[in-house]
Write a structure and sequence with these properties.
This protein has helices spanning 13-16, 23-31, 39-48, 93-102, 105-110, 115-120, 122-131, 146-152; strands at residues 3-6, 9-12, 73-77, 88-92. The chain contains 8 helices and 4 strands. By secondary structure, it is an alpha+beta fold. A two-stranded antiparallel sheet has the order 1-2. The chain has a two-stranded antiparallel sheet with strand order 3-4. Strand 1 and strand 2 form a beta hairpin. The chain is 40% helix and 12% strand. The protein folds into 2 domains: 3-48, no CATH class; 70-152, no CATH class.
């Protein structure tokens, strides 16, 4: 096995080819080599290794199924915070805005508090069919539905 000198310790080159692996995998590979480094020296060696930036897996939008770029990521409370909701899920900004354009907070809390319930609604299903064809960074102005807009007008 080829190795290179690191201070007074020797580190196998095989470890440097493990770029992007999690720390426990790297530590396991280090412990399996013939020249096992201990504690502080091993941690310092791992910290000083030049790993390329780790590619984090982008989450998929639970509504449309497309990947969500960082610039288009919104956190959606399945039950609105005003109704006691605490749990969130990430969605595309356009999907999130469409949900709030179609439903009031009361409707979201009582009838559409799950992704499956949202997808079962015919307007959401039509929107999802349309938006699935668009690239992940697609954005367009979202308009309130006439039903919601008429409720919010003051007499």
């Amino acid at each position: 096995m080829l190795s290179f000198a690191f201070g007074s310790a020797r580190m196998p080159q095989a470890v440097s080819s493990l770029a992007g692996c999690q720390l426990d995998i790297v530590l396991r590979a280090l412990s399996e080599t013939e020249n096992v480094m201990s504690g502080r020296i091993r941690r310092k060696a791992i910290a000083e290794m030049q790993f390329p930036p780790r590619q984090s897996a982008l989450p998929d939008c639970p509504l449309c199924g497309r990947i969500i770029p960082e610039s288009q990521r919104d956190a959606h409370h399945l039950v609105p915070r005003s109704r006691g909701g605490m749990h969130t899920t990430f969605m595309h900004r356009i999907c999130h805005r469409q949900i709030h354009a179609l439903f009031t907070e009361v409707e979201l809390a009582s009838h559409y508090c799950t992704i499956n319930a949202l997808l079962a609604h015919h307007d959401v299903a039509a929107f999802v069919r349309w938006v699935r064809e668009k690239p992940p960074t697609f954005s367009e102005r979202t308009r309130k539905s006439q039903r919601i807009a008429s409720r919010r007008r003051l007499p």
